[in-house]
Amino acid sequence: MAEKKLGIFEKYLTLWIAICIAIGLLLGRFLPSFGQYLDFLKFAQLSIPIGICLFFMMCPTVVGIAFSDVKMAVKKPKPMLLTIIANWIIAPPIMTLYANLILRGNPQYIAGVILLGMSPCTAMVMRWIMLAKGDLAQGLINTAINALLMLLLYAPLSAFYLGVSGISVPWDLIAMSVIFFIAFPVLLGAVSRRLLIRGKGKNWFDSVYLETVRKISIIALLITLVVMFSFQGEIILNNPSLVAYLAAPNLLHYITMILITYSISWISNWDYPTSIDTALIGSSSHFEVAIAVATTLYGLNSGAALATVIGPLMGVPLMLSLVKFGLRTRHLFPRKKN
What we know:
This protein is mostly helical. It is built from 16 helices and 2 strands. Helix 6 runs parallel beside helix 9 (about 135-165), helix 13 (about 240-265) runs parallel beside helix 16 and helix 15 (about 285-300) packs antiparallel against helix 16 (about 305-330).
């Protein structure tokens, strides 16, 4: 079956992302009141604009997955096990190590970077999986399991690793962030798929609804970038050396996790869609929650908040690069043809 022709949003997505990052930085630099106003829009200490955007990013990928695909994905537990090990056993100590080695003497910067390494991305990563032509059903299973684990593990792991640096963690805030940013979009997306197909039919759902919400999803992604980068645009543009300093542990963390997950997938002789899923989920960071936690704990203009904002500054280009790298190397998977 021929692949659909990419629309203008997806075809030039890298350009749009770069433009939106630039807009966010410029807004933060020349109109700092914009970021302050957005920070004011909160419910129970959670960012309303980011929460809305994440919902419209996550929901289109969820509603497009059939239950039969999910059942098939469940039959492949090994990729899920790899992402769990990578995200909750390997990634946290590696990020903590890099943060303490490179950012020594700056506890707030260390705290922000550690918060980035505490969890996998469970919203925006679905966009990367879609763009990389990964297995969406497998990706959904992995992200859903990691979302549930996040509810259980994010608080105690953050308390443990941040405790090493002498920093306390608000366990209740982290749990609420996961619920509003992850659990609610997944649940509502799954329910809406069933209701819409029942009411409008499968053809209308596939040809009209999915095409519309996928465009909305990309727009939500771009708006999210504007919002996030407007928070610290002035500091980022005025202190490029500081940005490079904070980016160093993030860069090393991404490279390390990509090498681990993609190599194990190749050695395990998994197909490409499964392998790129594990690499994307195993290397990405849930910077939305990290930003929410850091800004609440230390304030909008704190060093910890700045360190978390550097996450998407590094993460977005790196994830796009991993998408392109995956597409160029997919012919290498599986390692041995059956």
